[in-house]
Amino acid sequence: MTMNELERLHPLTLEEYLALDEEVRRESEVVEGNLIPREPRDRPHQKTAFRLAGAFEAAVLKYRAGHSASTSTCYEVNTEVPLRLWEVPLTVRKPDAIVHRCREQFEMLEAGDAVIVAEVISRWSESRDRIHKMGEYAKALIPHYLIVQFDELGATIVEHYALMGTDTSYSRIGTTHRDRDLWALNVTIPFEIQIGWPDLAIGLPA
């Protein structure tokens, strides 16, 4: 199914979304049944997201090593995978990085699977990430949300938001700065995660 054909399909259903050409799905999200092109993402943006996912992966592997597989929750890490927040009206976002409970390989992730979602902010995406996605992720009851700012050397600021109690809007847990704080992220929930700024570096000083 092509973009031209989609002009006749509003609001988009889950079945119609899954029937889209792979390239269309890769470069778009769905908000309340409307297909939305994803914003441009340059190489520093992509590298920062990749480093963040790698740091999450290291934390997951450490968690697995310290816990019995039969009694602990299984977690996985992914980048830019479709995450269905709700089905009616269909809303599908693609976080830059996500920590989620394990699912079968070809099953679509749902909001209830996600424990941490992260967005790397670029000049094209700031309002979308700070306003629209933040509100949607909170409404979908995803416990933790990270906003990551970056420059040519890597992440510079990490903002951590979380749901508190029965809230459906995020509270700011903390903000870390590369030139001030030892850790970019240092939490024990949902499990111990310690990410240093070198873990999020993407280049070397000139």
Describe the 3D structure:
By secondary structure, this protein is an alpha+beta fold. It has two domains: 1-38, no CATH class; 40-200, tt1808, chain A, CATH 3.90.1570. It contains five helices and 13 strands. The chain has helices at residues 3-6, 14-18, 22-26, 43-65, 126-139, and strands spanning 28-31, 34-37, 75-78, 83-86, 91-93, 97-101, 109-110, 114-120, 144-151, 154-162, 171-177, 183-187, 193-196. The protein has a six-stranded mixed β-sheet. It has a three-stranded mixed β-sheet with strand order 5-4-7, covered by helices on one side. A two-stranded antiparallel ribbon has the order 1-2. The protein is globular.
Structural domains: how many: 2
The proportion of strand residues reads 25-35%
- CATH homology superfamily of the largest domain: tt1808, chain A
Second-tier CATH architecture of the largest domain:
Alpha-Beta Complex
Number of strands: 13
Short summary:
The protein has 206 residues and is of the alpha+beta class.
Topology diagram in text:
Layout: H1 3-6, H2 14-18, H3 22-26, E1 28-31, E2 34-37, H4 43-65, E3 75-78, E4 83-86, E5 91-93, E6 97-101, E7 109-110, E8 114-120, H5 126-139, E9 144-151, E10 154-162, E11 171-177, E12 183-187, E13 193-196
